[in-house]
Amino acid sequence: MAECLQKLLAIRGAKPLCAVVDHLRSWIGSILHELDIPAIGFFTSGACSAAMEHAMWKAGSADLGEIGNESRLLPGLPDHMAVTGSDLKRRPFGHSESELPKPHMGRRRKGPPAPGDQPHWFQEMDGFAQYLYNTCHELEAPFIEYLNEAFGKPVRAVGPLLPDKYWKSTRMGSTFRDQEVRVKRETNVKEEEVIEWLDCKPAGSVLYVSFGSEVGPTIEEYSELAEALEASNRPFIWTIQNPEQGFYPHGLQERVGKKRGLIIHGWAPQLLILSHPSTAAFLSHCGWNSTVEAIGCGIPILAWPIRGDQYHNAKLVVKHWAAGEFVTDDFSKSVNKNDIARGIEDIMGQEEVKKNARAISVKLENGFPVTSTDALNAFRDSILRAANS
């Protein structure tokens, strides 16, 4: 890697003022140090997950292990983000026997730290000059402030980094068209069909279900989800991967009928669905991008985290924003039909949660946050000052 960078620099002639490095590739920092190039850490996730990982590490895995049914405050973080026994009950990182592992290319990244363990990125990024986060003060102010103290170096919230047309749609209150900004991948439903389906539904009546393209429940849990959706009698859109990549809900579409349920295999126009007035709630794994896209549209979240930062994002949604519910109280066990059915009714019926989600979206309705624009400008100015000093 170092040799490749040296060759690239030789071709360029001029050394870059800095290099922005994804925190999942933080090991590159040591190479940049050898080349005397300032490294800037970039977190594609939010500030809450990093702050929680760091605070839990400082609390110590031994102390956390003694929590039991009590809770433990984390110094520097809001009281409602205290660690509870249920926070520590997670299934091991990795695939269960019923999950289908996907092929992996390139250097394998490290898995997320166990609760109380040191985050691998903290040590690897110790020599970095600054840190950028894909978030904004309007969403995560206390967690950004915590990280500023923890790092002792500038931590800048420069997001959420979403398409410019997304921010324009939030200002106009219009439905977003994904096909205008995102490459459409394989799917069984056209975007126009999704719009027509949603247009036929009452306002605030549809449950949207999606776990993204990288992680998901076990095959057994998918079956439980299919049964819960069928029994709910509520209109829903369910996005799942193509049949050859995992679970296929045999017969569900025929049993519920396309009028009530729309099952999308492969790519789905998520921003369109979330921004449509018929959508009421989002059953999500709480990946950061999905979380921000939903809350930016004022959509409450039924949180079903699978691994890593998703657990912290889910807690941010439920405890800090009060804009969602957990699908279960114990993520160490398989989620069953009753958990899901109860969660669906809770998230669809709780007006206070819906109100809170809408209130947060109002903070973003004027477009890309001014605080993030200021942070980007401050970052640029600091790099130029360092280069000229």
Automatic annotation (TrEMBL):
One of its GO terms (molecular function) is anthocyanidin 3-O-glucosyltransferase activity. Residues 87-102 have a biased composition (Basic and acidic residues). It catalyses: an anthocyanidin + UDP-alpha-D-glucose + H(+) = an anthocyanidin 3-O-beta-D-glucoside + UDP. This is anthocyanidin 3-O-glucosyltransferase. It is an enzyme of class 2 (transferase). Pfam families: UDPGT (PF00201). Its EC number is 2.4.1.115. The keyword NAD does not apply. Keywords: Glycosyltransferase, Transferase. Belongs to the UDP-glycosyltransferase family. Residues 87-120 are annotated as: Disordered. Pathway: Pigment biosynthesis; anthocyanin biosynthesis. It comes from the Eukaryota. The keyword Transferase applies.
